[in-house]
């Protein structure tokens, strides 16, 4: 069994490759070529949590991700992916889950953006200043001609630091917004990557035609957008069963009587496969609701493990 650390994941899993992996993994999920259970979550003290995500992906093997979520730490998601060989049943690899999660979450959003955002989208707004904010700044411009990124965060210093990093490392103009409304005004694409317990983004702030990657909340409870925006948008999940059970924004809107389960459209994998529509017209507001799926982790784990075996 091989062990792959954070640095090796970073070397072997580039964002363009990962975007393609996410498309294929989500098609497999949507077309029945994978198996997975809903994630199990144990609440810990201080708002921290421990999660277990088991599953199997055709062509990749089977396994589980064990991950801690400590929002106040520099690396909020830490853990391991244990990958088993589908032929022998033997454990094949233990891989750093924090770095895989960081990359694959943003690349799944980028893949969804490629299918749902307007073709000429150039302005990206990112709400949040942590690891996922940076990863989305890297990934989304790979699928759309982004020339401006606006950053909003509760800490102006962190927002400014992220803007400088974007300009220095990505060569894209970055601006710090003083409010959520200012950040998203006129933005073609919005990525919410916060730990907000209550909605920070309202429907009134969003222009027609906007695509939103709804990323920050991965469980029932904390929500980043208001009920009106949920109801207004074409609401497309990564994993429909997961969102119906654990998608906080949908659950709040449903409990308020604003939407029913029918509002959650077929999964993004069916859009990738051409089996269901994504955007119907240029004025649609589209939402990709990301909870994160073990098939995404397994696809990345298999890619990284294969790259290690090939280098021997």
Task: Report what the structure shows.
The chain has 312 residues and is an alpha/beta fold. The chain has two domains: 2-101 and 294-310, 2-Layer Sandwich (ornithine cyclodeaminase, domain 1); 110-289, NAD(P)-binding Rossmann-like Domain (Rossmann fold). Helices cover 37% and strands 23% of the residues. Strands 1, 2, 3, 4, 5, 6 and 7 form a seven-stranded mixed beta sheet that branches.
Sum up the structure in keywords.
312 residues, alpha/beta, ornithine cyclodeaminase, domain 1, 2 domains, seven-stranded mixed sheet, 14 strands, NAD(P)-bd_dom_sf, Ornithine cyclodeaminase, ODC_Mu_crystall
Q: Please outline the major beta sheet.
A: 7 strands, mixed
> What portion of residues belong to β-strands?
15-25%
Low-confidence stretches: none
Secondary structure class reads alpha/beta
The tally of structural domains comes to 2
The CATH topology of the largest domain is Rossmann fold
Mean pLDDT across all residues, rounded?
A: 96
**Can you identify the CATH class of the largest domain?**
Alpha Beta
* Strand segment tally: 14
Any idea what the CATH superfamily of the largest domain is called? NAD(P)-binding Rossmann-like Domain
Rg is 18 Å
InterPro entries: NAD(P)-bd_dom_sf (IPR036291), ODC_Mu_crystall (IPR003462), ODC_N (IPR023401)
Organism: Sphingomonas changbaiensis NBRC 104936
Protein name: Ornithine cyclodeaminase
GO molecular function, one term: hormone binding
Which helices and strands occur, and which strands form pairs?
Elements: E1 2-4, H1 6-12, H2 15-30, E2 34-36, E3 40-43, E4 49-57, E5 61-69, E6 77-84, E7 91-96, H3 97-116, E8 123-127, H4 131-139, E9 148-152, H5 156-170, E10 173-176, H6 180-184, E11 189-192, E12 211-214, H7 227-232, E13 234-237, H8 240-246, H9 248-255, H10 268-272, E14 286-289, H11 294-311
Parallel strand pairs: 1-7, 8-9, 8-11, 9-10, 11-12, 12-14, 13-14
Antiparallel strand pairs: 2-4, 3-4, 4-5, 5-6, 6-7
Helix pairs in contact: 1-3, 2-3, 2-11, 3-4, 3-11
